[in-house]
């Protein structure tokens, strides 16, 4: 039965990836049901998109949609949480408020369950959702994390004025490979308990999802 569910999940993901705009496809790739994480470059581009009034709703809708996946698609849910965490620290202020508006959904993931061959994969989702809720509830810490991300942008490049339209000036932008919330380093993978760590270069995907 589990094999059938996996095949069904793969068929569903393939069908979804056929259509969609370039931005939607980028979100699909960032949250794909594959045992590796999205690159920091890709997450930075998605964070940048939250500063555009037309692209912002596309990004957030994609995140919340994929967060609703369950069972054999646990990686999709988990990776949508990782992307949301990155957006909270590197995206527009509106993205932060959107996350707060979805606190009920985030808290409900504290009961996420999925095990395969004796391995509790659900713990990855439960722990990540808990950490995000804690961050959203701690305004002082969130401000500090966003300021760190902004400082890093000052070193490695900032948000273009074109992308800032619609969300005011002085908003935080998108991080870099050295940001605490950037990418999927092997250290992050070990911290989050997501299986074996994979390879990852500068700005590339890191931790594996066993």
Automatic annotation (TrEMBL):
UniProt cross-references to SMART domains, sorted A to Z: ENTH
SUPFAM superfamilies attached to this UniProt entry: ENTH/VHS domain
Low complexity composition-biased segments: 174-186
Highest taxon, organism lineage: Eukaryota
Alphabetized Pfam families for the sequence: ENTH (PF01417)
Gene Ontology molecular function: clathrin binding; phospholipid binding
UniProt GO cellular component terms: clathrin vesicle coat; endosome; plasma membrane
Chain intervals with Gly residues compositional bias: 195-210
Region (Disordered): 144-210
Residues of the ENTH domain: 15-146
GO biological process, one term: endocytosis
Identification of the protein by name: ENTH domain-containing protein
Species of provenance: Haptolina ericina
Highest classification ranks of the organism: Eukaryota, Haptista, Haptophyta, Prymnesiophyceae, Prymnesiales
């Amino acid at each position: 039965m589990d094999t059938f569910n996996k095949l069904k999940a793969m068929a569903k993901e393939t069908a979804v990836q056929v259509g969609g705009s370039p931005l939607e496809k980028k979100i699909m790739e960032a949250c794909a049901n594959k045992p590796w994480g999205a690159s920091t470059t890709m997450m930075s581009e998605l964070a940048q998109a939250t500063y555009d009034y037309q692209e912002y709703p596309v990004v957030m809708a994609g995140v919340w949609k994929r967060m609703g996946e369950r069972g054999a698609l646990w990686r999709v849910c988990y990776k949508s949480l990782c992307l949301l965490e990155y957006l909270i620290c590197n995206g527009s202020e509106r993205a932060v408020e959107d996350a707060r508006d979805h606190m009920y959904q985030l808290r409900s993931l504290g009961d996420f369950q999925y095990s395969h061959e004796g391995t509790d994969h659900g713990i990855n989702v439960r722990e990540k959702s808990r950490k995000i809720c804690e961050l959203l509830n701690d305004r002082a810490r969130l401000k500090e994390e966003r300021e760190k991300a902004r400082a890093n942008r000052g070193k490695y490049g900032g948000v273009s004025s074109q992308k800032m339209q619609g969300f005011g000036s002085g908003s935080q932008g998108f991080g870099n490979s050295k940001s605490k919330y950037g990418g999927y380093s092997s250290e992050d993978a070990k911290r989050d308990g997501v299986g074996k760590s994979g390879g990852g270069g500068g700005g590339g995907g890191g931790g594996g999802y066993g």
